[in-house]
Amino acid sequence: MRFFFVDPARVSGGRARLDGDEARHIKDVLRLRPGDEIGLLDGAGREFSGVIAGMSGGGVEVRLTGSRPAPGGSRIRLSVAQGFLKEKKMDRLAHQLSELGVHRWVPFVSTRAVARPAADRAQARQKRWHKIAVEALKQCRRSHLMAVDPVADFKHVLALAAEHELSVLFWEENAGMALEGELSAAGSRPESILLVIGPEGGFTVEEARAAAAAGFRVAGLGPRVMKAETAAVAACAIVQHLFGDLAPGQKHLDKQGPLA
Can you give the pLDDT at residue 254? Predict the structure, then answer.
């Protein structure tokens, strides 16, 4: 069964309506017709089965035949703040991080960021990343749509620490402070985690110190210097393995360290 994204506000009384890209894909690309069965994901935790009931006004009407909590959720609320990268790297990251179950993505501009989009361009990029997150939701059968924040500055990112139980900034100059050690020291099973990864040029000493003063743990990802986009995926995978839903048998870190 093919799945499509539906705005939760367009689901009511056993019916749903799809508009825009989803409707065009159903009609013009897949050439589905009334009577065909489809699945819907609302990005807010519900999954629906339904039958196309009609097509009008550029939209697709769906008669719902069933619903259930959507699979693919994560037990942690993982936010990732990513220093702005060049070219299409941010587009790829939007999809990869959504696949990994990231709850919220915060692109930001810091001192060593090479790419610095103008305000109007930044808004267009945010819309594009939202669209990419929707595509990843359907592909991965995620329960919740990854939120994409507007492009922010580093000061805003530091303030986000107050919203999370654990906040970690990755700095290549602190490679000796391993991520796993920092997570073990943080305590048992945080439910909200913020990871901050810098742009291609990394963070300045002043930025790393400001993060530590704001309550961040400053850690590295091992002895090798990774590309920024690699570091983001690696950090998320490690945290999801330790605290989220990637570890076989749900083995998470506790106060005594990794469970055997």
Answer: 36
- Could you read off the pLDDT of 21-79 as tens digits, one per residue? 999 999 999 999 999 999 999 999 999 999 999 998 889 999 999 999 988 788 899 99
In the chain, domain spans: 3-69, 77-250
Distance CA 58, CA 55 (A): 7
Residue range 98-120: mean pLDDT, rounded: 89
- 62, two tokens: 């769906």
DSSP string covering 114-130, please?
S----HHHHHHHHHHHH
Pairing of strands 37-41, 46-56: antiparallel
User: What CATH number matches the domain at 77-250, 3.30.420.10, 3.40.50.2300, 3.40.1280.10, 3.40.630.30?
Assistant: 3.40.1280.10
Q: What is the pLDDT of residues 135-152, one digit of tens each?
A: 999 998 889 999 999 999
The proportion of the chain whose per-residue pLDDT surpasses 90, expressed as a percent, equals 67
Sign of dihedral through CA atoms 76, 77, 81, 86? positive
By CB atoms closer than 10 A (0-12, 13-18, 19+), residue 1 is exposed
Q: How many Cβ atoms sit within 10 Å of the Cβ of residue 245?
A: 14
The amino acid present at 180, given as its one-letter code, is: E
Q: Which residues contact 148 (CB under 8 A, 6 or more apart)?
A: 94, 104, 105, 107, 126, 129, 130, 133
* Cα distance between residue 3 and residue 40, in whole Å: 5
What separation in angstroms does the CA of 211 have from each of 157, 166, 198? 9, 13, 12
Placement of tokens 């983001």 in the chain: 232
pLDDT of residue 247: 65
Fold exhibited by the domain 3-69: Ribosomal Protein L25; Chain P (2.40.240)
